[in-house]
Amino acid sequence: MQQLRIVPDKLIHLNVRKSKAVLSLQNKIGQNSALMGPEMETLADQMYAEYSMNINAIRDSFKQFIFEYDTENEGKERTYFDLTEMLHLRYRSGAPRRPPRVILIGPTGSGRTT
Description:
The protein is of the alpha/beta class. The protein contains 3 helices and 3 strands. It has helices at residues 18-32, 37-61, 76-86, and strands at 10-15, 66-70, 102-105. Strands 2-1-3 form a 3-stranded parallel β-sheet, with no helix packed on it.
């Protein structure tokens, strides 16, 4: 079986404080399960720990492509403006035009969906 390998032009990591990410995870868990109290907090902490482990591996793999962006103190409009500025890619003059390949990552509560 042939693997499809896509190398992104940019990988943007949306940073947010751990406490905000864990609170957002707890809200999602509460909506989708019957867990409450300490069980929900423990599960949210475990999910965030797994995310942290995985994002560190991604940072190592994509050192040359990754851009860190702190969404904590920025409004939606400012974040949108900054991200569109990051996406302006320069192409070689003779290169054919193609859409940029961008991966947007971040923990729950970082604003990926927005």
